[in-house]
Amino acid sequence: MIVDVADKALSMQIDVSVVISGYAQGNFLMADETGGLGWYASYSHALIPLDHHFRYPKSLQRILNQNWFEVAINRDFEAVCEGCADREMTWISPELKAVYWQLHQAGWAHSFETWQGDQLAGGVLGIAIGGAFIGESMFYHISEGSKVALVKLVEHLRKRGFVLFDAQLQNSHLARFGAYEVPRKEYKKLLHQAIQKPCYFD
Does residue 8 fall inside a structural domain? Predict the structure, then answer.
């Protein structure tokens, strides 16, 4: 369950430090039905394991072995935001995309992408704070593009020393990769420990 934890109405000219502080406390931004932004919290968080508990469908191994996709970081951050927002029901409003862009320019928000030639195949949008990566959304234009991005992102986070990959809300798709839920109290403890680590996403 998601609950509203603060007032709505963030202005387009945001204070980046305030936004990062909100995420560091375990909250996240989301647009409501009217498009207004607000801070929200969840009673539980879905975490993607960064250890041996991470898994993926066997059908994906052939695609990984054959290198169908090239991986890139922040090659086209705006296109990844657009891809994540381009769905019938989305919490990513134009104002939230503007917030992500400002976080990206300040070095906090990143896109982890898969490409086929000059075509963006898929990607994951997220915010990195210390050793925590908070996944905001993912999408694909080419089948399997987002799945490969997720697998390669986990490999990248491991190499960089990250200890927490927050996928926020559990679903059947994430469960296939080993995602599991923890209650908010435990999540906040793990998050506090993770953000103390001096990790660099890119």
Answer: no
